[in-house]
Amino acid sequence: RSVIGYLNVMETRNRNRTSLVLKSSVKTTFILSYSNFVTESVAFNNGIMTDSYYYQKENGKEITSEIIPDGNYIKIINNKRVDSQTFSPVRNNYLQLFFYSPQNTEKFYSNHYHQFLTVEKVSENKYRLTLPNGSYNIYNYQDRICRSVDVERRFFTIHFILKKIEQ
Known about the structure:
Elements: E1 5-14, E2 17-29, E3 33-45, E4 48-58, E5 61-70, E6 73-78, E7 81-86, E8 107-110, E9 115-123, E10 126-130, E11 136-142, E12 145-152, E13 157-161
Antiparallel strand pairs: 1-2, 2-3, 3-4, 4-5, 5-6, 6-7, 8-9, 9-10, 10-11, 11-12, 12-13
C-alpha cells in the first residue's frame, strides 16, 4: 500500500451547535490519472441540521452544493442554483459516521447526493454505507470510534486509516 492522499475530519461543539468538517485529497495514476479533492461541512443546532456545504473537484470537474435554512424549510443549492426545498428536519448526516458508530440509525443524509443513504451493519463494529451508484464505503470502529474507512469503487479501493485523535 502507498499513500496517495489524505482525509481530515474535525468535529467542533459549542453549546447546542455541532459542526463537522471534512477535507480530502486523492491523487494517483494507475492506468489513467485520477484526482479528487473534496471539502464538506455540516452544522447542527440542537441536533437538527441547519446548513451544509459540499465542494468536489474530480479529474478537473467541479461540483458545489449547499443547504441553507429558509424559515421552516431548507434550500438545496446546486452549482449556485436553487434546486429544491424540503421541510423534514435532518438529524443524521453521513459525516457523523467518521466519528461514531451508528446507534439504531439506518439512514444518513448525504450532502453530495441530496438524499438519505442506507447504512447497514456488516459485522461487529463494521458498517456499510451504500451510495446511489452501487459503490459503497465500509466504516470500521473500535470503542465506537471510526478507525478506518474503505472506499470501494468500481475500479479501485481507497483505504483511509485513522492516524491521530486530537482531544
